[in-house]
Fold Glucose-1-phosphate adenylyltransferase.
Amino acid sequence: METTMPQIRDGLHQTDAAPGDRTQTGTRFISQLTRNTFAIILAGGRGSRLQQLTEFRTKPAVHFAGKFRIIDFTLSNCVNSGIRKIGVATQYKAHSLIRHIQRGWSFLDGRFDEYIQLLPAQQQIDETQWYQGTADAVYQNLNFIHRCNPEHVLIVAGDHIYKMDYGRMLAAHARQRADMTVACIDVPIADAREFGVMAVDDEDRVVEFVEKPQVPPSIPGNPERALASMGIYIFNTRFLIEQLERDAHTPGSSRDFGKDIIPHIVARHRVFAHRFADSCVGRNAEKPYWRDVGTIDAYWEANMDMTKVTPELDLYDTHWPIWTHQKQLPPAKFVFNDNDRRGVAMDSLISSGCIISGATVTNSMLFSGVKVHSWAKVEDSVILPNVEIGRHAVLKRCVIDRQCRIPEGMVIGVDPEEDRKRFYVSPRGVTLVTATMLGQGSAWRP
């Protein structure tokens, strides 16, 4: 993963780019900075806007893009960036997330001081409270950070889809002699009301930070755009500890980075914005790919993005791979070539273990172990693992949770009013189906 001919720029070691490396300038910033950084991934959110899709799992554990979990993108960014001391803070419905990390992310070697440490909410500071906010989730794990003794701490959400070289952000943080650096993305001013938004000066130093403002500050010289926080922060470790301890003893604080920590330190310390376009990994640095898949509509659309001929997010880039755990399954199989039934899939991603038996799949995402029986039609849909779709069934614009059994002849996604009687229909007309909705019990579905 690292080459052996380091270059020197701004006093930082960088590795030469492998041919085809898709970072913006073609160079990975794997350095002593990344090796001496501890990453803590905040992965404890309920994900309630994903409706029943998070009935049995936390949002970072939700399946995505045929074979991954959402958290795999953040974990892969860390590993590919050379940050291999990682803590994952968990809280709600964490069993499947913990199992996934244990099975799929055990390849880091503790003998070389590389690890992923699970940090469940254990009420370490106050025996009456779980994690109260993003800052409190880090504060409750200060003992672990002290033992790790890193130079920098990277704090990042575990529930977004993107590819980013955190080493570039660390290099900028060091070059600017920052106390804290906040990753940000350029968004339309109308969309900025859903984010923490920052105002910056000509050097990208943050001069104001407001959480979900009604009137967001705009980018200098561009009144139609704003800089929105991505929930990715780099702190000098000593500075982080000081601020967390101060905030923990501040009456009325909600113990949150966006609401409390950042607004307090902006006027008192060196806080800089780091633009995602400067460290994104992908084909188009001018339009970097980052998605919050926090609603059924956003989740469906992001999965549909992957079925395009040339997706904006490249899953086939071998120089910045997305790592995961997947069962050992046989190849996907397409059977029957009769005139009246033919097993075909077009403009779709079909995962291992799937059998398309005389059925038609169009513009869809099928996860592992899906079986589609004869004369069934699946269109514009996301089918999670181990689903069985009966003969003559029709699915359009659906998200089908894992282990569902779609009965023979059932039609879903054609009549929204009929679907609402049994299933969840999103504002944009995407139908979510779970085994419980089908009356198939609440069997364990990790």
Observations:
- Confidence is low (pLDDT under 50) at residues 1-26.
- The domain at 333-438 is CATH 2.160.10.10 (UDP N-Acetylglucosamine Acyltransferase; domain 1).
- The first strand starts at residue 7 and ends at 9.
- The two ends are 31 Å apart (CA to CA).
